[in-house]
Design brief:
Layout lengths: L1 H22 L8 E6 L4 E7 L4 E7 L3 H4 L5 H19 L6 E3 L8 H11 L5
Parallel strand pairs: 1-4
Antiparallel strand pairs: 1-2, 2-3
Length: 123
């Protein structure tokens, strides 16, 4: 029974993801900030969908963040958001379109988005 529930949840998330991606697209001026959340890690990247290239990326597995393991998973998400905003500034990006990738906008996803906004990325 639990295996079927996991499959159902994954299918429902992918359906939400496709509906979101139908309306959200990144450009060179305003790339898409895509967030992926696994059980243990969180990943974020800025993507130009016109060319299909990743402009900046950060994850909780980055060496810069591995030493700062305080605050649990939400703390990791905040650090990833700040690091991504710093890397975006280096790449000359100030605005982005937020793509939650089918995940609910709360918890780690929300923490990442708010940290990126506080660090100067407009999304």
């Amino acid at each position: 029974m639990a295996k079927n529930m996991q499959k159902l949840k994954a299918v429902r998330r992918l359906r939400r993801k496709h509906h979101i991606r139908h309306n959200v697209a990144g450009t060179a001026e305003r790339p898409r900030l895509s967030v992926y959340r696994s059980l243990a890690q969180i990943y974020a990247q800025l993507i130009n969908d016109d060319t299909g290239r990743t402009l900046a990326a950060a994850s909780s597995l980055d060496r810069d963040l591995r030493t700062q393991a305080e605050g649990g998973k939400c703390g990791d998400a905040e650090r990833v958001g700040r690091l991504l905003a710093e890397r975006a500034k280096v790449a000359g990006i100030t605005k982005a379109v937020f793509d939650r990738n089918g995940f609910r906008f709360h918890g780690r996803v929300k923490a990442l988005a708010e940290a990126a906004r506080k660090s100067g990325l407009e999304c």
